[in-house]
Design goal:
Blueprint: H1 2-24, E1 30-45, E2 60-76, E3 79-90, E4 95-108, E5 111-118, E6 153-161, E7 165-172, E8 179-188, E9 191-199, E10 206-216, E11 219-229, E12 236-239, E13 248-250, E14 260-272, E15 275-284, H2 290-305, H3 310-324, E16 332-342, E17 346-355, E18 360-372, E19 375-385, E20 397-408
Antiparallel strand pairs: 1-2, 1-20, 2-3, 3-4, 4-5, 5-6, 6-7, 7-8, 8-9, 9-10, 10-11, 11-14, 12-13, 14-15, 15-16, 16-17, 17-18, 18-19, 19-20
Amino acid sequence: MKSNRNRFMVLSILAILLMTLVRQAPAKALKLNLFANYSYDWQSLNADSLWNPGRMFLDTEQDSRLALNLEAKWNYKGIRALVSPLMTMDHEGHSQWKLREAAVTFSSGRFELTAGRAIVKWGTGYMFTPISMVTPEKQVSDPEDMLRSRTGGDLFKIDYYTENINLSAVVFKKNNWKNLALFAYMNVKGFDLYGILYYPEYKKLEFGLAVATTISAGVEVHAEGMMHRRSPVLRHPVFAAENPQVTYVDPQLVQPEDGYYKEFLVGANITVKDINIIIEYYHNDWGLKKLWWERLKGYFTYNINRNDDPLSMLNAVSSLEILQQGRRGLSRDYLFLRAWKSFKNVDLSTIFFMNLADRGLLSLFEMQYTLSDGISFYIQPIYFTGKAGSEFGENFYSGSMQLGIRVAL
């Protein structure tokens, strides 16, 4: 409750300050944009998935989603403000509100001070950005955030700029406000160089580096890496059956807390005959190794076979799905490939995302037709394939189809 009051007070102060400045500025200082997305989804359940034990679900789920995002930008005499609320509504009429961004930036000479919620773009990666500690990861199905679902981080940031150098210091919130990052960028003889020192709330210093350069017309290469310190993690209860003897709780599902684990990528952005191709290899040591993952699935299957309570089975599924997500899930070893080409009124793109450890594959295709300036229709099928036991082969959905309309005013 206290955190909600503090957040409300901060937002209220920012809103009052913004309204006061807007009243004093000319009308042209304020720019408004409205982004609307409406989509309708068909999702086919995977009858053979580990997450669908005993083929409990044998149907196709349907859903619709309306997303409205207002983006208000204000710029006057060295002061910039951005407010971007997002409203989403599902097919049952349930709505949710969140602030994508709400920040004020003050500029003076070579310095800038930013306070509020902002999307911070650091690093070189297209799909993954290991050194971008402030803003959450992108979605594979929407790497350019066309649905505008990414939310910025709450922060205080100070920047210092010269012609070729940018230095930043950021205090930002995750579980609490005890997160500090020092970031540096410079351009040296055609090379973009990045460095970061990160002191997180669990008080273990981490560091990262990145580099990007253009080696020929239409070919850009980049690399990025981050050395993380192992942090304390919660135990992972897999399944609490009625018989305590088959309950499986193991504190060592993630590597010991001492030492570092590495996260890195190498990639290229290539344009040939108006076809843009992005390819990246991404690796992250954090998470469950293959042996532990197989052991988890074995315990899960064993308990499912010994218990007929659907609610207990769903709880078990939820526990394993949590393990799969984010940095506390599976170890990452992925290949990302995206190809895109634009025609007169049609944009075509495809994404292939492969888990190199088990050859599981996510395949995505999108066709977007531009009806007029700011209005377009799109269709996006997604397929999950892989052998039994692979990450994408065990996905709860075997595929989905999304139809939608995008409007930008």
